[in-house]
Amino acid sequence: MKFPTLIFCFCLLGEAVYGQLPSNGSKIDFFCTNWGMDVPWDEFCRRVKAAGFDGVETWLPSSDAELKAMDAALQQHGLDLILLSAGSGNTFEAYLEQFVNNLKRAIARKPRLINCHTGKDHFTVEQNSALITAAAALARESGVKIVHETHRGRFSFAAHVTRDYLERLPELSLTLDISHWCNVHESMLADQPEAVAAALSRTGHIHVRVGHQQGPQVNDPRAPEWEGVLQQHLRWWDEVVERYRKADETLTMTTEFGPPAYLPVLPYTKQPVASQWDINVYMLGLLKSRYYP
């Protein structure tokens, strides 16, 4: 991840272009992904703090040395922590064991919340439900919030499938990354309003990435050709923000545009068509100007 000089022009993101929601003191905490990070933890956290984020979302480091560096950098720069977690294994039994062990390891760090990449799209409903139920039990026992990301390849790979799980499992709370569903369904989901509404009503965390009918990430959300797609994502996020505002609860949002080659690149040279860091900081500014006018 490259970090060019930041020029903040958030004043351009005014009401005339994007619209605003009323503010009554409700709170949103903004997190930055470390996906694609290519500098040491201290430097990364310094830049994250300077950009105006409240914390970092990351997978738990596997080495003790990196774990210590992460902890020290977060403390030094006053940043909160969201952890990602998942399972692995060639059988469901192996996956379940690893899933639970990884969650316990993440819980021990006492993060703000844990965002799970849960199950597989080819597991049975009963198997994926067992994973969600195991996570719910750990959340109750530990007091750490655990949410499950809407993601390709997971139990939540499609809108209509996720709706079935939401109806089946009242304890299920989602990380809304609706960009994946735009890609999976090759649509902006206008023909699935009930499934989308169910997901929005059970969202516990948001991944701020803009997807489209042919991919989970537009090349640059600032480009005018994506204005309609961006506005649709903003309307979805608005609904969740409004629900948290009415409940007087704090919502968390992570800007999660990914690095090359998740971010499109040019052929032959593999040059990214935009800066991942600039896009994520732009999204932070857009959201702050929208929700804190």
Tell me what the structure shows.
The protein is α/β, with parallel strands linked by helices. It contains 10 helices and 8 strands. The protein has helices at 15-18, 41-51, 64-77, 92-107, 125-142, 159-168, 179-185, 193-201, 227-247, 276-291, and strands at residues 28-33, 55-59, 80-86, 113-117, 145-149, 174-176, 203-208, 251-255. The chain has an 8-stranded parallel beta barrel, surrounded by 6 helices. The chain is globular. 36% of the residues are buried.
What is the structure about, briefly put?
By secondary structure, this protein is of the alpha/beta class.
Whole-angstrom Rg: 19 Å
Taking pLDDT < 50 over at least 5 consecutive residues as the criterion, the unreliable ranges are 1-20
Largest sheet: 8 strands, parallel, barrel
- Helix share, percent: 40-55%
Q: What is the number of helices? A: 10
Taken from the alpha-carbon principal axes, the silhouette is globular
What string gives the helices and strands in order? Answer: HEHEHEHEHEHEHHEHEH
Query: If you average the pLDDT, what whole number results?
Result: 92
What's the end-to-end separation, in Å? 30 Å
**Beta-strand proportion:** 5-15%
Count of strand segments? 8
- The largest sheet has its strands arranged as 1-2-3-4-5-6-7-8
SSE-based structural type:
alpha/beta
